[in-house]
Structure formats: structure tokens, C-alpha cells
Amino acid sequence: MRMMVINPNTTMSMTDSIGRAARAAVGPDVRVEAVSPGMGPVSIEGHYDEVLASVGVVDEVRRGEACGVDAFVIACFGDPGLQAARELASGPVVGVAEAAFRAAGFAGRSFAIVTTLGRTLGRARDLVAEYGCERQCVAYRACEVPVLGLEDDEGDAYMALEAECDDVLRSTDADAIVLGCAGMAKLCGRLADHLAVPVIDGVAAGAAFAEGLVRIGMHTGKRREFARPIAKPVRGLLSGFSLEELPGGRRRN
Amino acid sequence: MRMMVINPNTTMSMTDSIGRAARAAVGPDVRVEAVSPGMGPVSIEGHYDEVLASVGVVDEVRRGEACGVDAFVIACFGDPGLQAARELASGPVVGVAEAAFRAAGFAGRSFAIVTTLGRTLGRARDLVAEYGCERQCVAYRACEVPVLGLEDDEGDAYMALEAECDDVLRSTDADAIVLGCAGMAKLCGRLADHLAVPVIDGVAAGAAFAEGLVRIGMHTGKRREFARPIAKPVRGLLSGFSLEELPGGRRRN
Amino acid sequence: MRMMVINPNTTMSMTDSIGRAARAAVGPDVRVEAVSPGMGPVSIEGHYDEVLASVGVVDEVRRGEACGVDAFVIACFGDPGLQAARELASGPVVGVAEAAFRAAGFAGRSFAIVTTLGRTLGRARDLVAEYGCERQCVAYRACEVPVLGLEDDEGDAYMALEAECDDVLRSTDADAIVLGCAGMAKLCGRLADHLAVPVIDGVAAGAAFAEGLVRIGMHTGKRREFARPIAKPVRGLLSGFSLEELPGGRRRN
Amino acid sequence: MRMMVINPNTTMSMTDSIGRAARAAVGPDVRVEAVSPGMGPVSIEGHYDEVLASVGVVDEVRRGEACGVDAFVIACFGDPGLQAARELASGPVVGVAEAAFRAAGFAGRSFAIVTTLGRTLGRARDLVAEYGCERQCVAYRACEVPVLGLEDDEGDAYMALEAECDDVLRSTDADAIVLGCAGMAKLCGRLADHLAVPVIDGVAAGAAFAEGLVRIGMHTGKRREFARPIAKPVRGLLSGFSLEELPGGRRRN
Amino acid sequence: MRMMVINPNTTMSMTDSIGRAARAAVGPDVRVEAVSPGMGPVSIEGHYDEVLASVGVVDEVRRGEACGVDAFVIACFGDPGLQAARELASGPVVGVAEAAFRAAGFAGRSFAIVTTLGRTLGRARDLVAEYGCERQCVAYRACEVPVLGLEDDEGDAYMALEAECDDVLRSTDADAIVLGCAGMAKLCGRLADHLAVPVIDGVAAGAAFAEGLVRIGMHTGKRREFARPIAKPVRGLLSGFSLEELPGGRRRN
Amino acid sequence: MRMMVINPNTTMSMTDSIGRAARAAVGPDVRVEAVSPGMGPVSIEGHYDEVLASVGVVDEVRRGEACGVDAFVIACFGDPGLQAARELASGPVVGVAEAAFRAAGFAGRSFAIVTTLGRTLGRARDLVAEYGCERQCVAYRACEVPVLGLEDDEGDAYMALEAECDDVLRSTDADAIVLGCAGMAKLCGRLADHLAVPVIDGVAAGAAFAEGLVRIGMHTGKRREFARPIAKPVRGLLSGFSLEELPGGRRRN
């Protein structure tokens, strides 16, 4: 089984730690390729960043699809480009926010999201609503460490994150913590040991669920909304993204 | 990894087919034990049946917990006894309705449930609401084949199920079909081939996700609602269900 | 009119106080029988307890139905076995949580639930959602007195409960308090005098509403989901719960 | 116990039939006074009518409150003036839509509303949302008989209503029918006999629940939103509605 | 373009400031008539006041409709009589609460309502739900200044309002403040300067949106719920509100 | 007042008709610039197209912001890039879907969306949910004319659209029709004449509301989620989108 784990930002050190987290979550017969797009912002901390990063995500999915990848994991907590990726891919596409929320659902009634910058919590709220988790998510918290702060100064970042988690557990009944950034994957184990509640890293959850989906033969339903994108010209800087008609107009359902 | 897959009714032929579906969904290092309780109704087709079956489920979970089982799958679409099982078990407990809805979520925007008897659709509605899937579930259908009809006359049952699925795909935009009974596991492949849309058997999905949860070290959060049940006397016919204090009062978080 | 008020746990002192609360809530032509099942846990403080207690509830409902009882009240705040009881009974079945929420609805915009142990608040949340009261219920509180603490030490229990109620009224605009345990029925009057807001005991509300439902000829709709359970074998310890076909297969709508 | 049942329109024949339905729903110790305001439209079939009728409702509640009425029932399916009445009254105030929805909730999972004119269904939708019944109400239907058509030609009105009810039961799984106009009270019994499902007349339900609420000592919470209206001048045509300060500024909680 | 801005209470100084706020919000070709009904309470601070004020609103709308007014703004935060006004008017009718919520929606994710008396927040909650803004509205606050306090002592009222706004911005992430009373229109600019976040006065928003609606030819859909009220007798004090059949029974869609 | 109306696709004939619709909706003192990005797909009919088009939208907003544009309208029914545009712009940014839904809200209780291709209805559902309109939107319909079919063959496109609108009005109570594609702006008048219900073109609504927002001094709240994007490197093909620190780090609230 070939699984492509896409870090939507262009910071390779984060791609590496995401790859490690994904590999630890899957069986020995799964080949995990952790990649970063060749274009896009170095970190994703707002809607503008996400617009730009989404282009890189669909670029990688097109490439992976051409190579016969069996499943894709989009390893940024905003699930950027997820719906477009589902149009493009034959196999399942898993966003790490969706995966983390589902893991939390299997682990109890409620969870708290703890993320990097507070300005990204709006996107978290959108996803919680989209995935039907408004009753489950009982707190939205930020430790106010920038995404690249997780790379540059892991020790300080960990302490800020731990403090925020301790506080949210004191003030709510949350059964679990959901980490709100794929870059936190490497801090998950230490945090779980300290907090003694389930701490969910969406990268691990996403990789594990993607493996399961492939094993049961699941893929995106392609009969309507998520059918292959309609072939049409794309102009200017993005002209390389033009899609051509499939020969015979066939598509996999 | 040891996984106990519990068929909550007491019909062993169904337990066998459920076991086969679960085994096909997991990796080679997972040992699946498919079991039925020693007590309870032969099929579950209403709330009364579910009250009775839930006792058998918690009985099996207690037994499995004592034997060091790593994960539990409750293989009845009503997810009977799921919350109680989460109190009892150290590892993850997955209900097949929750698992099927999550697989469907990864496969597109919307799904239709197709089940056995129409009178069970109320329970399906309760679960759809509980799991936050009211926007996703676009149709509730029944082929009006009783649960044991799936055992007794597989051919006729298949034809009725296929006809209902064909109809729901004609009249809605559902991206996927969710099978509303664990006894339908054995019909899933043939149906998927015919319909050319994702058809989701919760048993396979539940086993695959349970494996993934164990692999990423996930378990039920035990700090409050799902802590081990409080030790107390249980009287009369059910006195065997009395729990005793753990020595030292310790519990795993 | 014969009304059976079922205390789902097996603690008779609580059954007695529940019976007194129910009798005070109904007219002189209503004969209230307060009963406890012959099996089950001595108190209900979690999902495991509730699975076990539900069996006792359906056992009592079968017994009452055979004796021509006109209405049933299930006197535990988790409304255990309520849907199964509605399948079994010809007349109305009222859960005390549903009744309390409805009384609160007639009394204003919002209420706060104050219950025994915090671990039971998850069940309260489930019921609030099921009964459509998410906008109404503005606080979930626990005084952390165990259910049997209400029996053993009424004075201390009252003080803890009063303190929690005082606090919730200070910090919210709740129009009313809903008591989250049938065992609190006996404390309701004193609390209402102290707090000077409506304090709702579900037992009283349930008995009063059940009387009203019988008077207007209301019963559970039996055309589909809540039709009499399908006759089928039940095995093992619970074999006494097997139902037989009604002669002629008739059922009341 | 004194109960005032207010028909918010000014058609006395409807007031009479509403009074009969209410009296049949309560115990012998309840004195039901069925009244109509001295001002307002002859029927309520839209928002304009409701604005005008609400003034009459609050006028009657003020009068009843001055006479020591114990409970009020507002007998129009739009629950006109209900919140204002709760500010004015010391005892409980029950709207017949709220009462009908609650009776339906005790009778099963789902109901269908069948009313007079289709243009009033918008108000029904508002009330269903306000009372948290969006999952319960599975159909909104109108037989397109005007309200006064129920008075003028009972036979034809009945046939149109029956036909609509038959149709909605064929096309949905509704457990019960809720009659969408207080003027239909007199048709309820015949309809229930014909349909063999629970048919709910809000007038009967409202009177029965109001009696129950008084019996358990329930009233509107008066600590904030529903405190007595603030005394202030009212000008012009409505100057008779000016309220004066209570001596001592006291209010009942 | 003729726009009638209706202050539903009968305090003319407030009508004047409302008129000024509306005029500042529209283009030079819009003629704003700010009016007060000839009947009704001097301020609206609860449900009773609102019932009475709604009659005055529909009276003004009838008058304006007869004079060929192009659009109506109802300038009280409870949007009293809005649905009835939409039945009566040919052109668009805008309530200031709806307008304020929509302006807030265009300005970000979330807003906080800051109003006069806490007892009016229930009405605010009803409107937030009706207009689908439950996710957007993150706080409901009252500065506990009565409506006429805004007229009598503008300086003190401003200070109380500012303090409440400061506090809500400290304790939430609200992107904007919605002023919860039309009488606050005159304080909006000073408050926006102080707070440095968008502060929304519904009167300005309502007038601006009403102008836009007229410019694009929008009006209330009249095919069903909001068709012209049915002609019928109105009795007693309100007999002047009887509507007559339009000649030919025609109505504008 | 300068208003930039952005057609997110790269088909100039559509940009022209959008510009005409916007100009007709605003006052004489508003200068409307209708633009298309220099990059991106020729039409937007799915999630992949939208990812690509969003980049062009933010490019135009950056350009407009640098030129002192007062307000932006994003003239594609998917509101692509709206949140990112709100981060970038000082003044208000209005999406035509949001604008159309709000105009519909002012025009009655309910609306039906009629769009081009059925595969785009998923995006419409997401926006309906995001904007809190799930109760309002009673039908989602597609006439199955591709977006560029509106340009190439206006006559046939109109007939297909009219047929779908006729059908949805026959089968629902919708008060208004919302056109689900900015390219339909030019068909709006003819359709409204035919249907005799309000037909809402989001382009006109968006331009009118944007003008109103500027007139009342409204802009996006910039204190947190919608603050200016954080300056950071963007790599590869999109490196031109890197933002630099503002001198002094100042931002407008």
C-alpha cells in the first residue's frame, strides 16, 4: 500500500517529523511518502496562507494520483484543499482535522482543541461545524506559539502547549485533547504522558484511518460532487493546472 | 493485537459471518475473536431487544477486559451498550454505526442508510443525531427483510436490499450507502460491485478503525464520564454483574 | 386511573420517597403504585448501571401492562429503558427527565440541571439533545453527592445541593432549576423555598403529566417504531424475557 | 383551581367548543372559564391577525390575574402573546402549540402538523423551532379550510382534514397527528377513531398540563426575563394598558 | 425613494435621533420619514411592551403603504411586528436587529450584543436563533441602563455602555459589537472610535440595506405566507384595523 | 466610492455582464470596476476550480487594496477566497452567495437555490450552513447548464433555468429564488417577470449591500482572525504572493 502524506507548507523539517509520525501509525506493509509542495507559504496561520497552500496540495495529489498512490493524508489542521483532492484522487483522502475529531469521538464524549496562534481558531470552528462536532468540542485554545516556533524552539513550545492543556483540563470536562497543528505531532507522546488523558495527533490518526480505509476498499464516492474535475483551460500563472479530458470520458465511480 | 468483535445477538451463524468480515479488514498481526453473548435475543429489531442485548454486550466486554483484549468492536448497527462498554474497557471500543458513519464521512458529503426493518430506523436517527451526522445522512430506508431473513434466505434478502439501494441512488445525490445491519456484511461486496458507489459495512469499518486506534495508542478517556463503573451491589437475576472495588482504587486514565 | 411509578434502582427507601412525591402530584382518583425491579443495581450513576437497570424497568412494565396499568412513570433522571417501555405499554410512558424539561419549558426560557455525581452529566447532555432542549439548558452542575448519599445523610446532601443551586443562579440567568436525580424529590420543596425560583422535581412533573395524558386519551403511537416488540426467543439468563406472538397477531395502534 | 382558557379570536362559537374540550381534559376540582377578548380579529390566519389578537390576550390575562386565576391556557395554535402573558401572570401560562408538541413528544418520536390555511404554516415552523421540535415534526400540512370554515361547515371541514391526515400518514412515518388550530378541538375524537393513531388537540393537552403544573406548584420563573412588566405610560388608543408600580415594588419570584 | 423609519415606541426624542442616524446612512435621493405611532408604550423593555408596540407598528405601515412608501425600517431591536409588516407592505421591510446581524456577518465571524436591560436579552436570543446567527453571536450583555436613560442622561449611559463593551472585548474574540437598542444610534460613532472594532447600529444598517433592496427591485415574496392579510372584521377597541377586500381580489406577488 | 467587483473566473464576457449588473445596483457616486484575475480557470464548477480561482481573487484584492478600493464584491456563488480577502482588505468584502442569502432573508422566510451544474450544489450546501440559512433554504436545484453555457447560448440556458424555477415553485412554498451563479445576473430580470416572485441575483445584492456598508463606515473587524496576514516567505510558483511586514507593524482595527 502506498500512502502519500502531504505537508501543505514548504518547511521540510516539519515534513520530516510529520513523516515519522505517520510511519509510526501504520502497519509494515504501508509505504509512507511524506512530501511538501514545491510552492506555497512556509507555514499556514490564516486564510490567505491557506488559499496559497491549497494549490500546492492539489499539485501533489495530481502527482500522486499519476503514480498510483493508494491513499492521501493532508497533514495540516485546516484540511486545506481536501474537497478538491477528493475530486482528483481515486483512493481515499483524509484530512488530519477530520481524522483527529473522529479519533476523539471514539475516545469519549468531548474534546478540547489546543493550537498554535489564536487567529487560526476561526478555521478550527469552521471545521468543527462542517464535521458535525459542535457538541463534542468543548474548548478552543491557543498557546500563541507560531507554527515555526514548534520547529525553532521545541522546548519552549512544549512548555507553552503543556500549560495550555493543563489549564483546559482544569476548566472543562474534556475527555481528550486534540492537537491543532500537524507540527505538534512530535510533542504528542510527551504530552500524553504528562496529562494522562488521550492526546490526539491528527497525523497519526489520519495515517491509521487512511490505512484502514484502503484495507476495506473504501474510496471517495465519485458519482456527482466528487467526480473528476471537468477538463477546462486554466490561464496565466496557473496554466499548468489545466486538466485534459480522460480518453473515452471514463471515470471510476 | 487482540480484537474482540461482539455480535450482540445470539445467532451464531451471524457471528461467524461478522467474524469473517472483521478479519478481512485488519492486518495479519491482529487476532480477531468473534463472539456472541450467552444471553439475549436472537436478533435486535427494536428498543426492547436492544435493552436485553446490551446486557450481553457488557458481559462480553467484562470477560474480554479480564483477558487483556486490546480493542472491542460492537457489531450491531444500534451500537448497543457502547457507552457502558467504554466505561469497562481500557482500550478503544468501536460501534459499527459510528464506524460506518465515519467511513462515509471520509468518502464524501452524504450517505443513505439502508437497513432491515423500518421500525429500526428510529434508532438509526438517534445515532445519526448523536454522532453529528444529520447533514450527512440524506435518506433512511428499509428493505423490510427481518434480520434473520439475512441468514435464512440470502438470495432473496440480497435482491430486496439491492432494489432499495438502486431506488435511493435514483432519488438522492448520496455519495455512499451505509448498510444498516451487521448481518449485511456478507452482502457488501456484491452490492458495491452492482451499485458502483462506496457501500459501507460497519463491521469492516469498525475493525479497521479499531486496529488503527490501537496502533496510535488511543483509548477511551477515563477521567470522568467513562471512568470505570463505581463498585456497588447488583441484585436479583443480574447479581453476577456486581463490580468490586479495584485494589487500591486505581484506574487507568 | 392506575399509575405505576418505577424506581429503576433497587433501593426501597428511594422508591418510598418517589412514591410520596408522585402521589402528591396527582388527583384523588389516581392510584399510584411505586415499585422497584427485583433485579439491578442499588443506584444508577453511569452507563453500566443504566444498562443493568433498564432490564428491571422493562420487567416492571411487562408486569404492569399485564395488570392493566393506565400509565407508567420511569423515575430515574436517565430515563432508562424509556423507548423499550413505550414499545411494551398500551398507555403513556413518561420519563422524569423528559417531564422535568417540559415543566421547565412551561416555566420560562432556560433552566439549569443540578445533579448528584458529575460523571452522570454526560447522560444528561444526551437527554437534553434528544429532547430538543439545547437552547434551554444553560448549565450542567453536580453537587458530587452519590445517589445513596441522598438516602444516608439527607442533611449534608441538602446543604451541598443548595450551595450548588445558589452558585448556578448567581452565574447564569436560569429561570428554573431542574433536579437531576429522582432521589432529590424529597428535597424539592425546601429548596424552592430557599431559592425563590421554580425548582422542578421530575417525579412530580412526570406523575402530573402522565395523569393529564391519560385524561386526554393519549398513548404511544404504535404504528411503526413503537409497535409491540416482535416475538422471538431470548436465550440464557434472560430467557424469561422472551415474548410470544399475540393471538391473531393483533396490536393496538 | 381556577383555569382561564383564552380563545384569542373574537368568535364566541369557537370559544364555546374550546371550553368544552378543556373541561373534558381536567379533573372535577378545576373550574374552567373559557373567554374571548373584547377586541380583535374574528379569526387568526396570519401575522397581522396575530399582532392584533395578542393585545386581547394580554388584556384577558391582566383581568384574570386580578381575579386570582391559577393558570392560563392560550387557545390558538400560534401561541399569541404567550411570553407577555408569562410576564403578567403569577401562575403557569400554557400555549396550545407548546402543549400539543409536548404531548406528541410523550407519544412517540415524530408528529405531523395538519392545520387550516397553508399561509399559517410559517408560524408553525417558527414555533417548532422555538420549542426545539425540528427533529420531531416531520410534516407541515394544510387542508386549506379557513378557521371560520370549521364553524360554518363542520362536515366539509372534517372531510378535508381527514383526507389530509390520511395522506400524511401514507407518506411519512409520523407517530402522531398534531391539530394545527384550536378550532379543530371538536373534530379530534372522530379523527382519532378514523386514523387509529394519536391525534393531539392542543386545547385538551394544554388544559391537562396546566392542571398538572398547578398541582405541582409550578409557575413562571420571575427573576429576570419574565418578571412583571416595568410600569410605564402607554399612549393613545392603548392607554388603558398602562401598568402602575406595585406598592412596595414587590414581585413574586 | 421614500423610506419610512418607524420608531415603535412613542418617545419623540428617540424618533428624532433615529431619523438622524437613518438619514446619514442613505444616499441623497432617499427621503427618510422618521415616525412614531400614535399609540403604545414610551419604551420597549419586555414582551408586554412589545405586544403593545407591534400594533402601532402595523398602524404606521398601513399608513405608509397607502402613501406609496418604497421601504420600511422598524427601528427597535426586537423587530416588533416585522412579519405582519411584511404582509402589509408592497416594498421591503427591514428590522434593525436583522440588519445589524447581517452587517456583522459581512464584518467577520462573530459579534457580541450589548443592550440596555438584561431582561430584554431573551428577545435578543430569540432573534439570533430566528435569523440563524447562533454560531455568530458569542456574547449577550446588558449595561442595565433603561431605554429612556439613553435619552435622559446620555453621558452616564455612554459610560456604562462603553464599560460593558470594553469588558466583552476583553473576554471574547468578538470581531464586532452589535448595539442592542435603536436608542443607542447616537452613541455609535463615539463608541467605535473608542473601541477600534466595528460597532454596528442597526438603524444605520437597516436604512442602508433597505435602500439597497429598493435599488435592486427587491420586495417581500407575496405568494403565500406574506400575501396581503385576509380581509376580516376586527372587533372592539381595535376595530379600526379591519381590512377590506381589495377590489378584484388582486394582489402583487 | 470605489468598488471592485471581482469575477473569479477568467472569462471576460462574464466579467462584463457582472459589471453591468453591479453598476445597475448602486448609486451614481459609486465607481464600479469589474475585473477578472490574470490567472485561473475559465469557469468554476467544482472544488478544484475553486482552489485555483481563489488565488486569482486574493491577487486582485491585493491589487485593489494597494489602489485604495473602498469595497470588494466577489462575484462567484461559491464565495471563493472570501475569508482571505477579508484578511487583506481594509474595507468590506462581500461574497455574492452571502449577499443573495441576506437579500432573500429580507424578502421572506424561505428560498430555493437554482444553479448551473448539480455537482456544485455541495458547495452551496456548505455556504448555506456556514451562513446559518439551513432553515431558510428549502430546495437545491440545478438546470444542468454549464457555466459557459450561459455565455454561449443564452436562449437555451434561459429556458432550462426557467423550467427548473417553475418546477421548484410548484413543489415548494419558497418565497424567493436565489440564482446560484454570477453568470445568471443577466437573466434575472426576465426570470422575475416570468415567475412573479422575487428572483435574487447575488451580484446586484452584493453591490448594493457593499455600497451600504461603506456608507455606514463598516469594514471587517481586524482584531484577531481577520487581521492582516502574517508576513512570511511564499515559495516557488507563488513566490510573488509573499507579504512583507508593514512598517512599524501597524494595522488598522
What would you note in describing this structure?
The structure is a homohexamer of 253-residue chains. Chain A has 253 residues and is α/β, with parallel strands linked by helices. Chain A has two domains: 138 residues, Rossmann fold; 105 residues, Rossmann fold. Helices cover 41% and strands 15% of the residues of chain A. In chain A, the strands form two sheets. In chain A, strands 2-1-4-5 form a four-stranded parallel β-sheet, with helices on both faces. A four-stranded parallel β-sheet of chain A has the order 7-6-8-9, with helices on both faces. Chain A is globular, with a radius of gyration of 18 Å. The two termini of chain A are 20 Å apart. In chain A, 67% of the residues are buried. Chains in contact: A-B, A-C, A-E, A-F, B-C, B-D, B-F, C-D, C-E, D-E, D-F, E-F. The interface between D and E is large, with 51 and 50 residues. Strand 10 of chain A pairs antiparallel with strand 3 of chain F, so a sheet runs across the interface.
